[in-house]
Write a structure and sequence with these properties.
Distance between the termini: 33 Å
Number of domains: 1
CATH topology: Jelly Rolls
Helix content: 10-25%
Order of helices and strands: HEEEEEEEEEEE
Radius of gyration: 15 Å
Length: about 160
């Protein structure tokens, strides 16, 4: 086992103790950008995920996506009606959910640490708002734009 893999397992176990719900098996990683409180990861295990569109405030017609081994879902944030609910799949094994936001100007922003994005900015903010719910808020402009994180907002129910 490599040192990197060992450290990943160690930090993952520590995050589980600190960030997981006592009812649901998920890990919300810490913010990697403490200034914007953004850059978190979301890992689920033995859970189903339901995505609900909350709203959007963007001049762009952004395309929201969930890409994972068990599901691929997408919809237009500009065209979606608040309350639109989409199943996000069931995950038996521990699986990091990868979310992205594609803009019409050719940028695609990834959830998680800013290093995943071409501008090195953490474009997604994940916040646990209930024992079984995480709110996903996006900033769609390069370099952090106005950093309002209201360009596409998704509620993630973990059941």
């Amino acid at each position: 086992m490599t040192v990197h893999r060992w450290l990943s397992l160690l930090f993952g176990a520590a995050a589980l103790l600190v960030h997981s719900s006592s009812v649901h098996a998920f890990i919300l990683g810490p913010a990697t950008d403490p200034i914007q409180d953004a850059g978190q990861t979301l890992t689920v295990e033995n859970e189903s995920v339901v995505l609900t569109f909350v709203g959007a405030s963007s001049a762009y017609d952004d395309e929201f996506r969930l890409t994972s081994p068990d599901a691929e879902r997408s919809f237009s944030c500009a065209d979606a009606v608040p309350g639109l609910t989409v199943p996000g799949g069931h995950y038996d094994a521990a699986t990091e959910l990868f979310f992205s936001l594609a803009t019409p100007v050719g940028d695609t922003w990834l959830s998680g640490p800013g290093e995943r994005n071409q501008d090195k900015f953490a474009h997604a903010r994940l916040t646990q708002v209930a024992p079984d719910t995480v709110l996903l808020e996006w900033e769609d402009l390069s370099g952090g734009g106005d950093a309002d994180f209201n360009d596409c907002i998704i509620s993630i129910a973990i059941k």
